[in-house]
Amino acid sequence: MSLRPRAHIHLSSIAYNWRAIKAAQVTGITGAVIKADAYGHGLREVAETLHDAGCDHFFVAHAFEAEATRATLGSHPNIYVLNGPSPDEEALYRENALIPVINSSFQFRTMADWLVDGVKMPRGYALHFDTGMNRLGLPAKDTSELADASAAQAPVLIMSHLACSEDSGSAMNAHQAEQLKTISDAFPNVPLSLANSGGVWLGLDYHHALTRPGIALYGGGHPPEGLVLKPGLTLEAPILQVRQLAAGETVGYGGSWRAIAPTLIATLAIGYGDGFPRSASNKGFVSLGGKRCPILGRVSMDLITIDVTQASDLARPGVYGQLIGPDAPLEEQAALAGTIGYELTTGLTPRVKRIYQS
Ligand SMILES: *Cc1c(COP(=O)(O)O)cnc(C)c1O
To answer: How far apart are CA 275 and CA 289, in angstroms?
Structure first.
């Protein structure tokens, strides 16, 4: 038996979550964001699963991710490259019929150079406007100039990205929706896209023609009360050793945890070398048969130590504890480590063996 940490990838749960998002939308088509190896779940496997479920619009960050998506799914779906094109990528975009998302005037000129001689982009292109996030996107003030410059080939999508979608009370949300509407007046009949996962939960005013959920597909983020998403993966690691500590003994590097009473501890084969964050030291937990066992001391590169006093019946070498999954909710574990679910799943390294379940 291997003593590697492993992640069971629940492909049917990811498809279930996509359908749940689709059902929550009042209008518009439901896309899927599968950048960063589908948030650590495996780009090819997730792309195939969602395509089979009926998804036709896939978003990635980089052209190489889009190329892998195209190779997996064949010619049918639309594949958008969120970070946009670079001048040397024309052949890659054309051969794979990728949809560049144009984020800057430099990227617009890059693509305009590809359109000379009237050869259009095979599946068109998207324009991404910045409506208040100030991260990436075309400035709203350039709208009419861009509308004029799009005469050679009109965009297939006008999009923007929400800065505060996780906070339904933020005034930023309505402000951005309003800004996008104003921009869209310059592009009559071009479909709009604004919502990420959090945007879908904000309701009808954010759904438009196409949504771009990512984290919700994988069971993360903060869906509204009553809408239950399923974990996209279950992360587990095996116990290597169990030991009894006497009061006063310490655990791990720096002796950062000290027993005040006799404590049964177990050492598991997972650490920050697998992507389980060091910031979970003395904060996170492992579920053993449904019982929460606190992490004691520092998370090291290959190992963690946990308190199994309350789960002594299960604590023996070869037994797997759960770090993310039904008994260890992603966002709860992430918050204990001072981070977010996105970072936890995308951070899992290749050392974590992925086991795909349909
Ligand atoms: C990553 C990303 C998304 C997906 O966001 P989630 O919060 O994971 O749903 C959507 N749109 C853009 C532009 C993104 O960069």
So the answer is: 23
